[in-house]
Structure formats: C-alpha cells, structure tokens
Specification:
Distance between the termini: 129 Å
Radius of gyration: 37 Å
Number of helices: 18
Structural class: alpha+beta
Strand content: 25-35%
Shape: elongated
Helix content: 25-40%
Largest sheet: 6 strands, mixed
Length: 693
C-alpha cells in the first residue's frame, strides 16, 4: 500500500506539471504592440507606398484600406514594414490603417490598429494648349481634382537638364521663348508634397525670328508738306510693311517699301498721324515696331484763344449746366475765364446744377433753349446732333491735338466734332482688396478668381446689367458700329464666329469652375462687401470708387479690366467706356463766346482741377501724365481701359437688355461651357434681339 501510494503521488505530480506548462503557454501569449503609420505617398507609376514602425515579435502586419466612397474596409497582409499598393484608382481618396499580428499554432493575436492616414491619387493632367504668340509661349492644361498646385517642367533643344516652375493656375507663359529651338513640356499635379503622374510630353517648335524695326523719327517734310516716318531695321530684311493712319481713320493703311528705310504720306494740319513698321525676310514678317506719331499742328491756342474768335460779341450773357458736384468749382473756373479776357464785357455767366443725362433729354425736348453750354454723356450726342441741337466744335484741331484719341472719336459724328471731351471715367474698372489680390494677380481674371478662392472671398460682376455684360461680347470680338441707314437699328461689325464662341466658352467655364466665388449681383454690393470682408474684388463703376476707397482705405486697389485665357491666349477683356463732353447749344445767342467758354472748361487747366478736387478722369494728354492722375490708381485704370474700350456712343436703346441676357446665360447653372452649338446660337440670338426689339 505504501509503494502504491508513492507511485500514485508521483503520477499526480507529473500530470500536474504537464497541465501547468500547457496553461502557461496560453496565458503568456504576447499581444503585438501598436504600430505607427509613418508615411503614405503616391508615386508617378500610380502606386501608393505605405511605411510603418515595426512591432517586436510580430509575424506580420494587416493593412486595412478603403476608398472614400466604400462602406467597408478591404484587408491586405504584409510581412515587412512597407507595402506598395498598385490596386488604386486615380482621382479618389484612400484611407489606410495597419496593425501587427502574432501566430501561435492556429491562433492569431492582433495588436491595436495604428493611426489612420489618407492619400489622394491624382489624375494625370493633359496639356490642352501650346501656342507661340510673338513674345510669349502660352502653355495650358486641364484642371485636376484635389491639387494644391502644379509642377511644370520644360527644356529647350539646347538644354541639358529640365527647368521647373511651381504654378497655382492651369496655365503658364514663357516670355521671349528662344527662337529656332524646340520646347519640350510636361506637367505634374501636386497636393502639398504629394506628386501625381506626369502628363504626356508635348513639344513645340519656335520659328526663327525676323528682327523687328525701330521707328527712329516721325516729322514734317517742310519741302513737300508730307509726314515722313524713318526706321532702323535688320540687314536681313529685304522689304518692310508700313502701317499708317490719322486721327479719324477707322482702319490702318498698308504699303510695302523696298530698298529704303523711310516712307512719306501727304499731311493735313490739325491731324495726328500714327505709324508702325514690320520687317520682311523671305516672306516671314517680324513683330510690329514701336508706334510712331506726329501731330501736324496749326496755329490755334490751347485753353485760350485770340480776341478775334469772339467775332465782335460783347455784353455777353451765358448759362451753363454742370453736374451738382461740379457747380462750386465751375463757378470759380468761370471767374478765371472772365479775368483772362479783360477786353471783353461779360454781363453774366450763370452756372446751374443739372445732371448730364437730364440735360441732354431736356435739350431733345426743346426745354433748354436758353442754355448755352452743358455737360453731356457721349451716348447722347448722336440724337442731339440729328435733332439739330448741337453746334459743331469751332476749335476741332486744338481738341484733336490735346485729347486722347478715343475721347475725340466719342465726341465726333461722321468725323466731325460736335462736343469738347471732358472726362474718360464713365465706365468701369477692377476694384480689389490688396490683402486678397496682388497687383500681379489683378492682371488676369484667372488670377483674381484664384486669389479670392484662396481667401474665401467673393468676386462680383453684374452679369445681369447689359452695361457690364456687353464686355463679354466685346471681348469675343463682337463690336457695334453705330446705326444702320434707318438711324435707329444697331449696326454690328463682322466677327470671327469660332473666336467669339471660344471666348464666351472661356468666360462660362471660369464662372462655373469658380461658381462659389463668381457672384452676379448689383455693384452696390462691392463696397459693402469690402466693408464686411466678404468681397475680395469686383468690376465696379468709376462713380463707386470713392465708396470702395472708404471701405478699404490703404488696402484699396484698382486696375484696368484683366485678361482672360482663351485657348492659350491671354485676351484683354474689353469694357464699354463712356465719355462726358461739353456741348454748345446750336441756338445760343452768343455762339462764339459759348464755344470759347466750352474750350476753356474742357481744357488742360480745368481738367486738372476737376481731377484734383473731384477725382474725375481726364482726356487731356498733358493731365494724363501729371502726378494728379499717375498717382491715382483708379484714374490710371480708367485711362488704360480707355485705350482698349468700345466707346459708349451711338447705341440703340434695345442694346442693353439682350446683353444682360447674354451675361445671365453664361453664368446659368444649366449652361454647358463645352457646348459650342449653344454659344453659336446664343450669339446669333443676342444680336437679333438687339436689332429686332
């Protein structure tokens, strides 16, 4: 019995040891530590690369992956601490997590999931435009979802390595591309430091350049009375194309000159002549030269004239209508005018307040017969002249010499002056907050919109108002040209339909791309938006500049209308600019004295005073170069707009509503910017509505 007890006890002890050992294996199984997902990257071969920290004693790692649109994760196993996921789709967002696992027999023990990381797989861009335009190589590509910027690579045939530029827009311009070489271009989308796939390579050959001539002199040949232009040119040129016109010419005349570097045309005093020259070598034309100009002056003075111009008038009584804001200043100017002619007797010169448009309407209704001199908008002149209410300008040569070309054109009917140019600010400009939009960004509509988007601000353009919306049509090349022979049907110039459609598509696409930023509303919302900090920029009337300045203070910026990218070309947006003029009533009892006063009030001295004290724009060439204008960004902007504008003159009353409808169609949410047929029909219908209403 004792022996049996000992054996039994030994067996119990042995079995107990075996059971404890087995139990220890299960209880002491190690749970892997939590790993950290360190890096995610999207490579140019459309692969997402993951990297994470190691877990001690782990047999492997499990990766959880899902797209932003997936409801559940899919799982991938990896034995190392990195993984290349080639099963991804471009243009979407993926989320990843990783955890370690340890195997013990058939049992698998998992650690905690790591932190989550997301990655955006970027689409591959396509270069859509590559154009060599004289001094600029334009590069365009399509917009990619989820990018912060783009990396542009280019090199010439002569380059050993690539040149890189980081670009926030979907276009880039290379200034003065090297002639006679080939440029190779690629674009890569970026999201922060994340790089997408490079676009396919595009190449463009830049043709060799013919050196452009330089105009060195324009002047009067006193022996012949002709106007001569002289230029210097490259020896490689076998001939030259000379372009010329005078003040009231609509189109440039052209002639080909061989064997000499000068050309002469007959001259007529009182006209300004303009010239440009292009060199020609083996049929290839150079770029245009600088513009040369010459004014063939007559003997008439500027602000003041000789006593003989009064034609014996004495005991002079005149009545003058001016806008309310200008009454006080004009009264001072009239006193200066009277002092300048001590030999004349002025019984009375009354200066009375009257808005420009109302003055024209009252004259049309024959209720202003006693008024001698009045301030008028340029678009009233045609009706007033046809009604016989305006006297032709007596000092046309002086006016043509002293004022900018567009202002003189606006005051003329059938090449004859019927009013004295006074201001060039009856139009609109780009007003912006300098904290939102830089001066460089203000040069392009794309730059303005991108700047506003980056700061969460609105851009305001009143597309419903035909006065502003006609800029879309003008930029597209659709221009008005006075009236048909019936005197009331609006006449349009010929235009290139394909170019017009492309321009309207470009506007519509930008409006839709920036639908949360581009806002069509009344311009009064611009200054209030500046005050509230909700608006970054807007196309505003010049008359609202003071309110914009008060809202922004030092941060107020102004510029001419920007350009818009149309098929790779930076196209200037063309505004409508109205001029204000000073007219003389054809029934004035003192017609000579009224003309002399109108000349003085529209002259250099009075324009400068109005610019200083009222902030009005100027048409006088000397005042436009004076610091009173050059130090005022709004006046500079209006001056620059006037150089590219369509003049607000000879416009049918049916013009405005169809243009507003055009603007509304461009921005409408159901408009497809890629539908060329739609825009062709829209142009045709807009013109028909203007002409037929």
């Amino acid at each position: 019995p004792q022996k049996f007890l000992s054996v039994t006890l030994a067996l119990i002890i042995a079995l107990s040891t075996l059971l404890v050992g087995t139990s220890a294996i299960t209880v002491n199984a190690v749970t892997p530590s939590k790993v950290t997902l360190v890096s995610t990257a999207y490579n140019t071969n459309a692969t997402v690369t993951l990297g994470w920290t190691a877990a001690s004693g782990a047999n492997g790692y499990q990766i959880a992956k899902r797209r932003i649109t997936d409801k559940a994760y899919t799982y991938i196993t990896s034995t190392g601490t990195s993984y290349n996921d080639k099963s991804v789709i471009t243009g979407t967002v993926y989320y990843y997590q990783v955890r370690a696992f340890r195997k013990s027999g058939k049992k698998i023990t998992y650690g905690a999931w790591s932190n989550s990381k997301s990655i955006t797989t970027l689409y591959r861009p396509t270069i859509t435009g590559l154009n060599d335009k004289d001094t600029v190589l334009n590069i365009n590509w399509n917009k990619i979802l989820g990018v912060s910027h783009y990396k542009l690579a280019f090199k010439r045939t002569i380059d050993k390595s690539w040149n890189y530029r980081y670009v926030n827009n979907t276009y880039f311009n290379i200034s003065n591309p090297t002639k006679g070489t080939t440029y190779t271009i690629q674009v890569c989308p970026m999201n922060g430091n994340l790089a997408g796939r490079w676009s396919l390579v595009k190449m463009i050959e830049i043709s060799k350049e013919v050196a452009k001539p330089v105009i060195t002199h324009t002047g009067l040949n006193e022996n012949t009375g002709g106007i001569r232009v002289t230029w210097s040119g490259a020896s490689s040129c076998d001939s030259y194309a000379v372009y010329y016109k005078k003040t009231f010419d609509k189109n440039w005349s052209t002639t080909i000159v061989k064997g000499k570097n000068y050309y002469e045309i007959p001259g007529v005093s009182g006209n300004t002549y303009y010239f440009q020259v292009r060199g020609i070598s083996s049929g290839i034309y150079s770029r245009y030269s600088n513009v040369g100009s010459y004014y063939y002056k007559n003997e008439t003075g500027s602000d003041f004239v000789d006593y003989s111009a009064f034609k014996g008038e004495n005991d002079i009584t005149l009545k003058v209508w001016v806008p309310d804001k200008a009454v006080s200043l004009t009264r001072q100017q009239v006193e200066e005018f009277k002092r300048a002619y001590p030999g004349k007797t002025f019984k009375k010169i009354d200066v009375m307040p009257q808005g420009e448009s109302e003055a024209g309407t009252m004259l049309l209704n024959d209720s202003a017969k006693s008024i001698d001199v009045m301030f008028l908008p340029s678009d009233m002149l045609d009706k007033l002249q046809k009604g016989g209410h305006l006297a032709p300008v007596s000092f046309a040569d002086t006016v043509s010499e002293n004022n900018e070309y567009s202002a003189v054109k606006a005051a003329a009917i059938n090449n004859k002056l019927y009013a004295y140019p006074e201001t060039n600010d009856n139009g609109y400009l780009l007003a912006y907050d300098k904290r939102v939009v830089s001066a460089e960004q203000a040069k392009t509509l794309e730059g303005v919109l991108a700047a506003c988007e980056s700061k969460g601000k609105k851009f305001v353009f009143d597309c419903n108002n035909g006065f502003y919306a006609c800029a879309f049509a003008f930029t597209a090349g659709i221009k008005i040209d006075g009236f048909e022979r019936d005197g009331y049907t609006q006449k349009f110039t010929q235009y290139n339909e394909d170019e017009a459609v492309a321009a309207l598509q470009a506007f519509s696409k930008l409006m839709h791309d920036y639908s949360g930023i581009f806002t069509s509303t009344d311009t009064a919302r611009i200054s209030s938006g500046f005050s509230k900090g909700t608006v970054g920029a807007g196309v505003d009337g010049a008359w609202n500049v003071l309110a914009d300045k008060n809202a922004l203070g030092y941060n107020f910026g102004a510029a001419k209308l920007p350009t818009i990218n149309v098929n790779g070309v930076a196209k200037q947006i063309v505004p409508m600019v109205g001029y204000k003029c000073i007219g003389v009533n054809s029934e004035s009892k003192f017609p000579a004295s009224a003309q002399i006063l109108a000349l003085y009030l529209s002259g250099e001295s009075c324009q400068k005073q109005r610019a200083q004290q009222l902030g009005w724009g100027t048409t006088n060439k000397n005042v436009q170069t004076d610091p009173v204008v050059t130090n005022n960004p709004a006046l500079v902007a209006m001056k620059e707009n006037s150089m590219v504008c369509v003049v607000r003159a000879n416009i049918a009353p049916t013009f405005w509503s169809p243009m507003g409808n055009l603007g509304n169609k461009l921005i409408a949410s159901n408009t497809d910017p890629s539908n060329k047929t739609y825009f062709k029909n829209l142009i045709t219908q807009t013109i028909a509505n203007v002409r037929d209403e």
